[in-house]
Design brief:
Blueprint lengths: L8 H29 L6 H39 L7 H6 L5 H44 L4 H34 L3 H41 L12 H42 L3 H22 L10 H32 L3 H24 L4 H9 L4 H33 L5 H15 L3 H23 L4 H50 L8 H4 L6 H40 L13 H14 L1 H19 L1 H37 L9 H42 L7 H23 L4 H8 L1
Helix pairs in contact: 1-5, 1-8, 2-4, 2-6, 2-7, 2-18, 4-5, 4-6, 4-7, 4-14, 5-6, 5-7, 5-8, 5-14, 6-7, 6-17, 6-18, 6-21, 7-8, 7-13, 7-14, 7-15, 7-18, 7-21, 8-9, 8-14, 9-10, 9-15, 10-12, 10-13, 10-15, 11-12, 11-20, 12-13, 12-20, 12-21, 13-15, 14-15, 15-20, 15-21, ...
Length: 761
């Protein structure tokens, strides 16, 4: 308890209660797992299809782990030795006042390295365990659909809830344990925790996105367009890879993505809260975010358990969506009431309450904007579907238009949210405003358990529908699964919007943390208060800062280019492989089974090929900018990353989702239905949108936060060195070499050794 030496009795009890709530969330996840695993797995044919999906998922996860472990080990050592470049912070010396400065430095170094490993391990656990549970749940949903809509909905949603509660429980557990041990010195260590979670999320987002869209695009182009067969036709060699891809992209990738946003908002909230503790000498600023998160876990447990269907109702599609929404709003209501009590009786002021309440409203507003532009019942998707009558070109143009418009409206919503933080803390020092923005992010992710459950529900229902089609289940069961799948498409689109919005708010919070951290180091170096970064701000009028802003805006474009190119190359290989297998005698007649494993292997190898290179660009680019252009330009670089990254991410996610749902409305019978010219045009639009909405767009979320966290970690070190220092010159040359090498390898490298040999002749 030494880390809480200045805490009151209530604060001490509250922090231990938060730790207990974290374990309660994990216990709830294990309870749901036990419930799911007892459910029936269906017919032998269903289990045969399920086993192929499971083997493909296991192969992907194993290869991914082997790819990323070496980089994790190297970065663990880097984080440990980073504390030897600069002296311990004043808070660390205060926290461990009985120890020598050298011993304090050692403790903080070990803490930061272990926190990095813990963050990476927790993010990996959320992604891998959540994905494995999704694979376990899909066949059970398909089996339940043979007898009950209500039961199949409950299984699908509760399987997704397992991932949601792992995200909640592990994120809260890590932050709370670090705070209990390190107290006011915890922000230094929390940076390692946030960086570990964010880096793993980048790996899982990029890898999962490339895998799922290579399989999906390849399967659709040959199966739907060329052969005019159904989406999950068992004769298509890429269909199992496509079903595996739904899990690695939308379960493992999205869960890790939201988990790292959850971590990062806690990190930025505590760093800014620490700055306020220095001003007010009250611990409430760093305990309040943890209490808010604890309340969120409890409210998510209640809300997610309320999601149930009704077999007596007609219109199962709407009933499922309303039931999921009912659980979400129940959690939101419980949270808001509890936050009000916490603000009144603990904070003794309402500004903190308004900040987190604005965050919840932001989540709802982004939900509604995303829903309007991607749901089949609203004008944008209907207009895109109508454009299919005049060909793929007009359909794609209409989708691009909707994507750009959605990005503009979401940007305005986020701008109004930040404006609200300014109004709430009007007249207070800027650090209070930045703290308000961080609290908005924490409020927005209060219902993480619900959000991740909604997202994972989508691929679980999609997989169940695919299993039903491949196992030739009866029409009644197929209709139930089709209804759940349609709801899942909407919930996935909504949670993508939340993930992007939370990424921007988290990045803005980290930007505030960057200003406060750099200013604190500058003060320690003897710089006058008037000359610190917090006082002067990031001056875009300075040419070197403007250069940083421009380069920051270019990075998301480069990142998107490389990820989309990776999908295109891998999808081309899948197209060739599926075409080859369609020429196997007896395959189209159903007498011979396709080689599903070959397509799975192509997707797995191509997905892992890009991971380290893209991670190096994200990790090294802010260090390079900081060394060459210095700290203020690095601030401009971060601003450019946030601006361009959010615009591109929303544009790609919305346009892709709208194209996807336009295709689905046509497949339901609009404008001639399946096989019509309108349908073929919509499939082209969907395949263009797939890598945008499920690979490039979502990958920008963790990339933005990785760059911000690296900047936070590197800035205090970079301040101490001049660009003419020989060590800095060598480091610059190394960074340039690695970044250029990563770009060239990503653009021109071979996907596999066998493929390279073929290219070389």
């Amino acid at each position: 308890m030494l880390g809480l030496m200045h805490a009151t009795l209530f604060e001490t009890i509250a922090i231990w209660s938060v730790l207990g709530i974290a374990f309660a969330g994990l216990g709830y996840a294990l309870m749901l797992r036990a419930q799911i695993m007892r459910k029936d797995k269906g017919t032998p044919k269903m289990q045969e299809v399920w086993q192929a999906i499971k083997l493909g998922a296991d192969a992907y996860l194993g290869r991914q782990l082997r790819t990323i472990l070496p980089l994790i080990m190297v970065l663990t050592l880097v984080l440990f030795f980073s504390v030897y470049v600069i002296p311990p912070s004043q808070e660390a010396l205060e926290r461990f006042s009985k120890l020598s400065p050298d011993m304090v430095r050692l403790i903080v170094g070990i803490g930061r390295a272990l926190a990095f490993v813990m963050g990476a391990f927790f993010s990996l656990t959320v992604g891998q365990f959540g994905m494995r549970m999704a694979v376990e749940g899909n066949v059970r949903v398909a089996s339940a659909a043979r007898t009950s809509f209500s039961e199949s909905l409950k299984i699908a949603y509760r399987t997704g809830t397992i991932t949601g509660m792992l995200t909640d429980g592990l994120g809260l557990l890590g932050g709370t344990v670090i705070f209990i041990i390190f107290g006011v010195a915890s922000p230094d260590v929390l940076l390692g925790f946030g960086f570990g979670g964010t880096l793993l999320a980048l790996f899982m987002r990029v890898g999962g996105g490339i895998y799922t869209k290579a399989a999906d695009v390849g399967a659709d182009l040959v199966g739907k367009v060329e052969k005019n067969i159904p989406e999950d036709d068992p004769r298509n060699a890429a269909v199992v890879a496509d079903l595996v891809g739904d899990n690695v992209g939308d379960c493992a990738g999205m869960a890790a993505d939201i988990f790292e946003s959850y971590e990062v908002t806690i990190v930025s909230g505590l760093i800014l809260g620490l700055a306020l503790v220095g001003i007010t000498h009250e611990l409430k600023w760093i305990i309040f975010p943890l209490l808010v998160r604890g309340i969120g876990v409890l409210s998510s447990i209640v809300g997610t358990y309320l999601v149930k269907g009704d077999d007596k109702k007609e219109g199962k599609h709407q009933d499922a969506f309303h039931s999921i929404n009912r659980g979400f709003f129940a959690s939101a209501g419980i949270s808001v009431i509890a936050f009000a009590f916490l603000a009144h009786f603990y904070m003794h002021e309402w500004r903190a309450f308004f900040s987190v309440a604005v965050g919840i409203l932001l989540a709802i507003a982004i939900d509604e904007v995303t829903k309007y532009f991607t749901h089949t019942t609203h004008a944008p998707v209907k207009e895109i579907a109508q454009s299919s009558n005049t060909g793929a070109a007009t359909l794609i143009l209409r989708g691009l238009s909707m994507g750009f418009e959605s990005s503009a409206w979401q940007f305005i919503v986020i701008a109004l949210t930040i404006l609200a933080a300014i109004v709430i803390y009007w007249g207070w020092p800027v650090v209070f405003v930045l703290y308000g923005v961080a609290m908005t992010g924490i409020g927005m992710l209060t219902l993480t358990g619900n959000n991740v459950a909604m997202d994972s529900f989508g691929p679980i229902a999609d997989n169940a529908n695919g299993i039903g089609e491949m196992a030739h289940l009866e029409p009644k069961a197929r209709q139930i699964m089709a209804d759940l799948d349609a709801v899942g498409n909407t919930t996935k689109a909504i949670t993508k919007g939340v993930a992007i919005g939370s990424a921007v708010i988290a990045a803005v919070s980290l930007f505030g943390s960057f200003l406060t951290d750099v200013s604190r180091v500058q003060l320690q170096m003897g710089m006058p208060q008037l000359h610190t970064l917090m006082t002067t701000g990031i001056r875009v009028s300075e040419p070197v800062v403007f250069i940083g802003l421009l380069i920051g805006g270019a990075i998301p474009c480069l990142f998107s280019s490389l990820t989309i190119n990776s999908v295109a190359k891998a999808a081309a290989l899948i197209v060739e492989e599926v075409r080859r297998q369609f020429h196997i005698p007896g395959l189209m007649e159903g007498k011979v089974k396709p080689d599903y494993k070959k397509a799975v292997d192509i997707c797995t190898v191509s997905a892992q090929k890009e991971l380290v290179g893209l991670a190096l660009i994200a990790v090294l680019s802010p260090i390079l900018i900081g060394m060459v252009l210095r700290i203020e330009a690095l601030g401009g670089f971060l601003a450019g990353i946030i601006l361009a990254g959010q615009l591109l991410a929303v544009f790609m996610a919305t346009a892709g989702g709208a194209w996807d749902n336009a295709k689905k409305t046509i497949e339901d019978g609009l404008y001639g239905g399946k096989g019509s010219d309108a349908h073929k045009a919509s499939v082209v639009g969907d395949t263009v949108g797939d890598p945008l909405k499920d690979t490039a767009g979502p990958a920008l979320n963790p990339m933005i936060k990785v760059i911000n966290l690296v900047s936070l970690l590197a800035a205090p070190i970079l301040i101490h060195y001049r660009r003419t220092d020989p060590r800095v010159v060598i480091a610059v040359l190394i960074c340039v070499a690695f970044i250029v090498g990563a770009i060239l390898y990503s653009k021109h490298g071979c996907i596999s050794f066998k493929h390279c040999k073929t290219k070389k002749g």
